[in-house]
Amino acid sequence: MEPRGPACPGSVLFGCELTASTKSYTFQVDEEDDSDHILALSVVSLTDGAKDECNVVEVVGRNHENQEIAVPVANLKLSCQPLLSLDNFKLQPPVTFRLAAGSGPVHLAGWHRIMHREDASFEEDDDLSEEDEEELPPIKPAKK
Predict the structure, then answer these.
(1) For residue 108, which phi and psi values (nearest 5 degrees)?
(2) Burial class (CB within 10 angstroms; exposed 0-12, middle 13-18, buried 19+) of 65
(3) Are the beta carbons of 96 and 25 closer than 8 angstroms?
(4) DSSP string, the chain
(5) Cβ 14 vs Cβ 112: under 8 Å
(6) Tens-digit pLDDT string for the chain (144 aa)
(7) Burial of 97 (0-12, 13-18, 19+ CB in 10 A)
(8) 24, 99 contact by CB (below 8 A)
(9) Of 71, 55, 56, 62, nearest to 95 (Cα)?
(10) Do 102 and 72 form a contact (C-beta atoms < 8 A)?
(11) Predicted local confidence at residue 115, as pLDDT
């Protein structure tokens, strides 16, 4: 199960807004911080004042060769798709969100999860989440 709020230690709510005047936002952490940081995006949505136009949100990061890449993650339009669930799409900082098209406002929301390297509970949490899921009974053939 993913972090749902402050009850999960090391998780804090994240949010930012992209507009015509603020086209990008960079999420980064202190380079001297030896903790592991994960940004899990839950939702991207148009907010009050948005026009009925295509609003394309890109994530700008680095690939395995340390080259900058930009990947569109959402294309929102007020009349047909004003909201998109990203199902806790995980990113490692630094990462930049950019409004590649449209004027917004577009709001991104999710969780910033901080795992201290000496804290082994992070790995245990992932194992427990699979066990917590309810197992479905096997499918039985229909009676004739």
Answers:
(1) -110, 135
(2) exposed
(3) yes
(4) ----STTSTTEEEEEEEE-SS--EEEE---TT--SEEEEEEEEEEE-TT--SS-EEEEEEEE-TTS-EEEEEEEEEBTTTBSEEEEEEEEE-SSEEEEEEES---EEEEEEEEEE-TT-THHHHHHHHHHHHSPPPPPPPPPP-
(5) yes
(6) 444 444 345 889 999 999 999 999 999 888 777 788 899 999 999 999 999 999 999 999 888 898 999 999 999 999 999 999 999 999 988 899 999 999 999 999 999 998 876 654 545 455 544 555 567 677 767 666
(7) buried
(8) yes
(9) 62
(10) no
(11) 82
- Say if CB 78 and CB 35 are below 8 A apart: no
Please identify which residue in the block is written with the tokens 């990947």. 71
Amino acid letter for position 58: E
| C-alpha–C-alpha distance, residues 141 and 144, integer Å | 9
The whole model's pTM is what? 0.70
> Which tokens go with 19?
């507009």
The one-letter amino acid code at 70 reads A
- Residue 143 tokens read as 């009676």
